[in-house]
Amino acid sequence: MSAGAIKAREQERPSRPLIKKEIVMSLNIKALAMTGGVVWGGAFLFLGLANLMVPSYGVLALDLGASIYPGYQGPGGLGSVIVVTLYALIDGAVGGAIIAWLYNAFVGQPKAV
Description:
The chain is mainly α. It has helices at residues 3-12, 29-53, 59-68, 78-107. It has one domain. 66% of the residues lie in helices and 0% in strands. The relative contact order is 0.20.
């Protein structure tokens, strides 16, 4: 094919505007809520169980939990470990969902450029 034929063929094609699509990443609210709950609940479960074995371990963190979660009285027996773990699981899930929702709200919808 000659150079003239190639140029003629290119001119026959309709020109399409180039549209760039912006890819916007969003967070899965349910997944981040579950992750936050498992991590935060797991942290307090670990602290509570470790405190049962070594009573001086994690006392300040568990006292912080006692000041935040109603019904939890601080380091104690296995029942208090279960209570603080459940509170922390719910707290972490709500916190994770709020973070994901806020992130998605700030990112917004994708826009064509």
